[in-house]
Amino acid sequence: MELTRENSRAMIYYDFRSGLTQKQCVDRMISAFGDEAPSKTTIYRWFAEFQRVKRVKLSDDPRQGHPKTVVTQENVDAVRKLIEEDQHVTYREIQATLDIDMSQIQIILHEQLGVKKLFSRWIPHSLCEEQKAARVTWCVRTLERFHAGSSNAVYNIVSGDESWIYAYEPETKNQSRVWVFENELKPTKIVRSRSVAKKWWPRLSPKPAMLRLFLLRDKERLMQNGMLAFVCHRSFLNSVKRTATAASSSITTMRVLTPHTEQKSF
């Protein structure tokens, strides 16, 4: 005969009313049922329950809905709907909305729905097909000109990077993480300007061993074909002449404003 919860609770209640201690009840249950006996924690908890409320009802109280640890199709559909409505929704928000266990949320997200939370890839602009083609053409010409990097003329390339000092920081890349279903495209977001109160510090290097840092004034930078151009200081141009084989053949590359963007020569 299987020892049910109600049966074990009835025997615990009998020992409680008989004046036995918790330890005596544990010893009696183990002596009678061995490994099938209720745990020590369960016996002590029921003794405390009987003492606290004089409880005599031995069955579980009725509960509404499914247990928090149960993965049901209803919960799966509810989580799917939350993600479709807000791809930035977090574990805690799902738990607060559906009142289910955190481990089950993980099972639903990664095993049932197969979603991943990815960073949105930053892109410099929402480019049209013509603009994309222009960039591909420029890259092909550059590869041909420098023989895919094997030509010594690559030392005439002036590479550059830049840093902005802003008065206000927008949403970070980590904050832009969104849930993505298995067959969905990876998310992207347009790079937005941070603030009008900013200073631009370009760093220019005609060779790995050389580095020039400038603070450019507003009149020394301009936009050309949607890309950022700049006017080099005379001291930098003189250094290029001394290091490059031909100053007229040097190429200046500069990245656009923000990380993860293409480069273009002027």
From TrEMBL:
Molecular-function GO term, any one: nucleic acid binding
Official protein name in the record: Mos1 transposase HTH domain-containing protein
Residue ranges of domain Mos1 transposase HTH in the record: 6-51
UniProt cross-references to Pfam families, sorted A to Z: HTH_48
Coiled coil segments of this chain: none
Native source organism of the sequence: Parnassius mnemosyne (clouded apollo)
